[in-house]
Specification:
Strand content: under 5%
CATH topology: Four Helix Bundle (Hemerythrin (Met), subunit A)
Distance between the termini: 62 Å
CATH superfamily: dinb family like domain
Order of helices and strands: HHHHHH
Shape: globular
Number of strands: 0
Number of helices: 6
CATH architecture: Up-down Bundle
Helix content: 55-70%
Length: 180
């Protein structure tokens, strides 16, 4: 029976180099990168940009059976909630809309194509602003906001990622149900 080939021995300096690479990575940096990935790419979730791409504005107010929201209603809900979380995270004087009515569109369809496009652009702009807050290495992920009741930047960033992924999933299903 042939003998198994032995792995070449690693030098002590190579072993130390590997360990130092692992140890030099800041846990905060890795966590920030992971949450940024969730915000930008969605992880295992559908991506906002992919789901909203080429959605015809004339179908933004369509309701389907057994589904309570239109695309416009969901888009506006994502926009308003994300904006509220972002502003809360960076502005101690921010006042949130009334729940639940302040977090949903007043109509089933946008008033015009510009409103639809502006809402999509605002979601992207505010998501980018949250990414910038999170990317700042001087921003403490774990410090409680003095104006809150226990919220931290990490919690709010995860809330945006979680909330958006849920409703983007709804938009994906709505898109499929409509036949887009």
């Amino acid at each position: 029976m042939p003998k198994k080939a032995k792995k070449p021995a690693q030098s002590k300096s190579l072993k130390k180099a590997k360990l130092s690479v692992v140890r030099s990575a800041s846990p905060d940096r890795l966590l920030r990168e992971h949450v940024l990935y969730l915000l930008k790419e969605g992880g295992a979730h559908a991506k906002f940009d992919d789901v909203m791409e080429d959605w015809p504005v004339q179908l933004s107010g369509v309701k389907v059976a057994n589904f309570p929201h239109t695309a416009w209603m969901l888009l506006e809900h994502i926009r308003i909630a994300q904006w509220d979380i972002l502003e809360f995270s960076r502005n101690p004087r921010h006042v949130s809309p009334n729940w639940p009515e302040g977090y949903w569109a007043e109509s089933e369809a946008p008033p015009n194509e510009k409103a639809w496009k502006d809402s999509i652009a605002a979601v992207k702009k505010d998501r980018k602003a949250m990414e910038q807050l999170l990317s700042n290495p001087k921003a403490d992920l774990y410090a409680k906001f003095p104006w809150g009741d226990g919220q931290t930047l990490l919690r709010e960033a995860l809330l945006v990622a979680d909330h958006n992924s849920y409703h983007v999933g709804q938009l994906a299903m709505l898109r499929k149900s409509i036949g887009i």
